[in-house]
Amino acid sequence: MDNAQLIADGRLHAERILLKNGGELGLLGSNQAYQQVWARDSMICGFGLWTCESADAAVIHQRSLNTLRQFQSLLGKIPHNVGFTDVPDPALIAHGGALTVGGKTGVAIEDTAHSGCVDGNLWYIISHYYDYMQRQDQGALAEAWSSLERALLWLRYQDSNECGLLEVHEAMDWADLFANRYNVLFDNVLYFAAWKCMGELAAVLGVEAATYHANAADVRQKINTLLWVGAEAPNDYDWVANNRKEWLYPMQRVATELQERPFYLPYMAFRDYADRFDTLGNLLAILFGVASPTQANKILDYIHGCGLNEPYPVRSVYPVVRPGDKDWRDYYRVRNLNQPHHYHNGGAWPFIGGFYVAALVQAGRLDAAATQLAKLTEMNRQGKQGEWEFNEWFHGQSGRPMGFAGQSWSTALYLFAADAVSNNAVRVFNAKNGW
Q1: DSSP string across 333-369
Q2: Which pTM was predicted?
Q3: What is the pLDDT of residues 285-325, one digit of tens each?
Q4: Which domain range does residue 141 map to?
């Protein structure tokens, strides 16, 4: 079977699984586990749902948006996930296998296992922008606007020292069993995108948009000041000394000890940093335009040079964290998840592979994007029990599936990637729309 036919088959399987994962509350995490509407998963999956031919796709995404808005806290926090009680779920071991509340069945509740996650609010804003760009429904946007403002205000209070970047505790985003912390690349790239999205949506509603765009530019500049090491983003130490003096010590350490890196560092903490490649954070920096074309090419060359797209696209971190490293935590051993080359610690994730293909398209590397889409197709075809499992994650070295099958974001980001390759452009987040 040639690649074109295999990709066509993959898209059919992906759409079937993705639509089947729709439920009363919105899009569930998978058909085997994660039987809830997860904020980050469902919002990211909107990117793929909008490529589906079925009208049910848009309805499913609207249910996800409405559920998250319904359970938004008074302070503006978007819930980590919302699900029905007493639904058996092998991913919820800490809850005895199901969400529970007062012995009641069939009740929708918020799960607080990871109640402090920051990226749910970020993806919630970004996905509303994506949804508007697809539907052009100004009435729905106006109805959601106050919720979006509250979601952004909650995020602003996560900037505890008012430096302009988010300060994030470890294990508080998609890598919820990993020790990235404080000024984290992944969350702050999304923070840039969220500010930009709010500016675009404000303009649609006739709301003053300049402040949103100014804050987006400020976040992008500060990410490049703090987390890029090299001549592509020269540091103005006089500005830092006058405005963000607490950054001087770690920045001077980085300049002395590292001198340069062809990627953004995963985080900068109090007088500390990590010298490690965070794949997803760097890919999103390309997709959303935090990285310049020169930086984007360095990042993509590094992925290829290190073989992070082997055997399948793409491994989540490099190098992996091992016992004895300063970022090793004993909780990495929980359920055997974050051992080296597992899960967040160097596992290969199809949804990150989808963002990888999209980033290649965004950078104009169309031939490479087509090659990696073919590899991502083969990855998603693999399974523990049979073909086309669209498994959650794969071992970073063996390339064998290790997670739960029928994963929504494995299917959705595959569809998003295939759409980008087919059209030689990323849907919504493209130059035509100012990205």
Answers
A1: GGGG-SSTTBTTBB-B-HHHHHHHHHHHHHTT-HHHH
A2: 0.97
A3: 999 999 999 999 999 999 999 999 999 999 999 999 999 99
A4: 3-433
